[in-house]
Every structure is written in C-alpha cells, then in structure tokens.
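<context>
A single protein, sequence plus fold
<sample>
Here is the protein in question:
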Amino acid sequence: MKYQQITREERYTIAAYRAQGLSVSEISALTERDRSTIYREFQRNFCHSTDGAYRPSKADARATSRRSLSRRNRQYSEDDFKIVRALLRKKFSPEQIVGHIRRFRLMSRSLSHETIYQYIWRDKANGGLLWTHLRQASKQRRKRYKAYDSRGRLANKRHISERPESV
C-alpha cells in the first residue's frame, strides 16, 4: 500500500475522536491508519506553548508549511541555469561550475554538481546539445547485471585449456 499523507478532513475526524476521549489505538482502527501515524500526528502538531491540545486547523497549517519547505520541492528555474549554460559553453565541468558559483556568489541558492548533471541529461533527452559541451563523456551510472564480462579476453583467441595436447 502506498503511503498517503493525512488530509485536512482526517485531521478534523481525529480531533473529534480525541475530544470523545478515544485512545490512539481506537482512533487508528476507526480511521484505518497505523497507530504510529496517529501518534506522530499528535506529537508533531500539539499546541505545546498553550494548553497542549490538538487543533486540526493549526495541524493542517503546520503540515502545509513543512511540505512547502521540504527539500523535495526546491526546484530551479531556467534563470538559475543561465549561468550554468554559459559556463558549460566555456568548457567548465559541473564541479568547477559549482565552485565558481560559490566562490563569486553568483546565485543566492546553492546548487550541486549532481543537479547540473541531471539538468544536462534531461536537456539531452529533450533533444538539447548541452551534453556536447562536457569536456569528458561520462557514463550514466548504469550497472549491467548478468552481462558478459570480456575483461582479460583476446578476440578470436582460444584459451590454453582448449588447445590440443601435443605429444
């Protein structure tokens, strides 16, 4: 089963069950959520500074805030990559680009070399030519499991064990 975040309606339902005096186990059974999910919801979203009650409106606002600040939602615009494209055309490597941006503080947000590589490969998949400006063609980290291993083998040569025995 795929993980689903608690919705606003579920938060109000949980608060109503809590107000009725039900235990966390009973609430989890009624909402068909895991007990640890309900515990985590209460722990993260209790009003610690006032009376320690669970308020679903505040809980939903806090969850929305955390979600918007998450690292997963950090996306870069095309303007952020203008510098990257210019430096790539000057034959800078992605690692050098990151160092150059940090050294001269050309961007307000930090950028990693892996993000630049992903941008380049995404551009290539869309028919772009940024990858041609890389100084060295690199493999895209693809492991070939159960593939034929040709290391240490010469083409069209028989192994010593395959030779006929001489008299």
About this structure: The chain has two domains: 8-73, 82-133. Residues 56-69 form the longest helix (14 residues).
